[in-house]
Amino acid sequence: MVSPPPPPPPFRLLLVVQVALLLVVLRPSAAALHDYGDALRKSILFFEGQRSGKLPPDQRITWRRDSALRDGAEDGVDLTGGYYDAGDNVKFGFPMAFTTTLMAWSVIDFGKSMGPEHLGEALKAVRWATDYLLKATAVPGVIYVQVGDAFRDHACWERPEDMDTPRTVYKVDRDHPGSDVAGETAAALAAASIAFRSHDPAYSARLLDRAISVFEFADKYRGAYSSSLHDAVCPCYCDVSGYEDELLWGAAWLHKASRRRDYHEYIRRNEVILHAGDSINEFGWDNKHAGINVLISKEVLMGKDDYLESFRINADNFICSLMPGVSDHPQIQYSPGGLLFKAGGSNMQHVTSLSFLLLAYSNYLSHAGGRVTCGGASAAPMELKRVAKRQVDYILGENPLGMSYMVGYGARWPRRIHHRGSSLPSVAAHPHRIRCKAGTAYYLSPKPNPNVLVGAVVGGPSNTSDAFPDVRPAFQQSEPTTYINAPLLGLLAFFYAHPDPHSWTQD
């Protein structure tokens, strides 16, 4: 990608002043302190509320019970376990795999900042997902990518312990390819293998072996799973961006996990074919481009791989697009209260994932003694950290409403989240089955949810006005998801260990 010429000196000076002023606006006040350790503990605890299958004896979200204990049985496979992705009762493999990758990346980059207790719980959360992904990839040449009929499930409002909707199993294979979901699954297994390397070497090796075989399948039988399984996965988790980014993403994580040169050569050989040069400012369960550029850039910044310099250039361009006032053609907006905002539903998924990349890249720059160059301006790693911290603090309550968007954190937080298990009486409180349509009364009730899903982060403000409707039917604003929380683990871990900006590396 050819960079535009730098602006003339007067405009450049004005741009630098703009950046400085906006960073002051986005910088939290010194008096506003948050308990990042408490928020980290709760953000990990949230995943226990999303568990499917047989719950362990140390389950801490005690209003949940065992659920979906026969998943896969009708197809002769064991697909119990894993996570419900959001407020419904379907197990979607694509976002679950992305969630796993981001939880593992949080552990890899920020595990030392978590402290032993938080790190142990984070690894349990990762393992609950990877144990399921191992089951879903146990049959060679097949990946089970979804359990549950999404349309039938979404027509009901019932607890996971009660659900009586079809637990239909969906899979991809050589005749029905799914390189996107397979590539993400390979990335998740490879990333998790790194996370477990020093804690459980045998399990780590098993994850890496499976990641290798899953990636071979993804690359050999190319195609989008939203074409093969369109009626089942769309519109919920339809892959709009195509499968090419997941192939590069999977190869990047396999190279990082295995250090095998053939994955490095795969990236170089397919860089153009798979659109690695696309400087797309997106990162989430559907689009991995920004994540690929940041992940691979670490190798370049550390001087280990000059052949992939284009990824670092793309990463710089991406980071510049997030820095307030820097880009001439911004793709990111900020609300008056300072929240990063992208059009579409569930904005917090963008806030946490993009902030995670800001923080990760700032650390890579710090270790390399580098800065981000944005045309005629530049930004030091500390400035990236400030923007990321501002987003975290907004989530935790430093916003115009004075509301924490993490359930159970702070004095004021969403009470009517779009979540079946949280909004319906628990099995302990109401032992009798609550059938499909009987839950509608609870769905429409203005009363707060009876069960607190501690640590859940909801979709957040619906527009750039910082407004939030704390009502259950507004699912784009009030529904929590696993992939909102996953990158937040790394963010909270860093600021837990470094709450004071003066403790950050001075760059």
TrEMBL record:
<feature type="active site">
    <location>
        <position position="470"/>
    </location>
</feature>
<dbReference type="GO" id="GO:0008810">
    <property type="term" value="F:cellulase activity"/>
</dbReference>
<keyword id="KW-0119">Carbohydrate metabolism</keyword>
<dbReference type="InterPro" id="IPR008928">
    <property type="entry name" value="6-hairpin_glycosidase_sf"/>
</dbReference>
<keyword id="KW-0378">Hydrolase</keyword>
<protein>
    <recommendedName>
        <fullName>Endoglucanase</fullName>
        <ecNumber>3.2.1.4</ecNumber>
    </recommendedName>
</protein>
<dbReference type="InterPro" id="IPR012341">
    <property type="entry name" value="6hp_glycosidase-like_sf"/>
</dbReference>
<keyword id="KW-0732">Signal</keyword>
<dbReference type="GO" id="GO:0030245">
    <property type="term" value="P:cellulose catabolic process"/>
</dbReference>
<keyword id="KW-0624">Polysaccharide degradation</keyword>
<keyword id="KW-0326">Glycosidase</keyword>
<dbReference type="InterPro" id="IPR033126">
    <property type="entry name" value="Glyco_hydro_9_Asp/Glu_AS"/>
</dbReference>
<feature type="active site">
    <location>
        <position position="479"/>
    </location>
</feature>
<feature type="signal peptide">
    <location>
        <begin position="1"/>
        <end position="31"/>
    </location>
</feature>
<dbReference type="Pfam" id="PF00759">
    <property type="entry name" value="Glyco_hydro_9"/>
</dbReference>
<keyword id="KW-0136">Cellulose degradation</keyword>
<dbReference type="InterPro" id="IPR001701">
    <property type="entry name" value="Glyco_hydro_9"/>
</dbReference>
<feature type="domain" description="Glycoside hydrolase family 9">
    <location>
        <begin position="36"/>
        <end position="492"/>
    </location>
</feature>
<comment type="similarity">
    <text>Belongs to the glycosyl hydrolase 9 (cellulase E) family.</text>
</comment>
